[in-house]
Amino acid sequence: MNEWEYKIVMVNTQHEPTTLEWITRFKDGNAKVQELLDSMGRDGWELVAFFPARPANQTLENSVTGQKLAIDADPWLHNAVFKKSAETTEEREQRVQSERLMRRIEEHKSGQKD
């Protein structure tokens, strides 16, 4: 049975088109969102959900003081939920051994430079 790791990232999807986009009417999307998706994908994360973080106006009340705080809805703010397979014991051991080997190589290289 697979075990999963999950990560939730809050994303501001507001996009300010460049002058070139306005002139050519080329819609490349939001570069910041694309960069996030590419980065998470390279790290093994898979996007499984994308939904508004604050879909409606909210009022929070401080239970001690009774003071109310209004939080406006933000149409640009979204939560992106990612998942990836949890590291197995064997994978973790291999990663640790690999990291130790890389440290030894770096230490050896730095020792030769002195």
Give a verbal description of the structure.
This protein has three helices and five strands. The protein has a three-stranded antiparallel sheet with strand order 1-5-2. Strands 3-4 form a two-stranded antiparallel ribbon. It has helices spanning 19-24, 31-42, 89-113, and strands at residues 4-12, 46-54, 58-61, 68-71, 74-85. The termini are far apart. It is of the alpha+beta class. The radius of gyration is 23 Å and the shape is extended. It has one domain.
Element layout with pairings:
Layout: E1 4-12, H1 19-24, H2 31-42, E2 46-54, E3 58-61, E4 68-71, E5 74-85, H3 89-113
Antiparallel strand pairs: 1-5, 2-5, 3-4
Entry summary:
The protein is α+β, with helices and mostly antiparallel strands and 114 residues long.
Q: Which structural class should the secondary elements be placed in?
A: alpha+beta
Give the neighbour order of strands across the main sheet.
1-5-2
Q: What's the β-strand tally?
A: 5
- Portion in strands: 25-35%
> What is the 3D form?
extended
Uncertain segments are none
Instruction: Evaluate the radius of gyration.
Output: 23 Å
Count helical runs: 3
Oligomer: single chain
Question: Fraction of residues in helices?
Answer: 25-40%
Determine the mean pLDDT: 84
Number of domains: 1
Order of helices and strands: EHHEEEEH
Main sheet attributes: strand count, strand direction, barrel closure:
3 strands, antiparallel
- The end-to-end distance, rounded to whole angstroms, is 50 Å
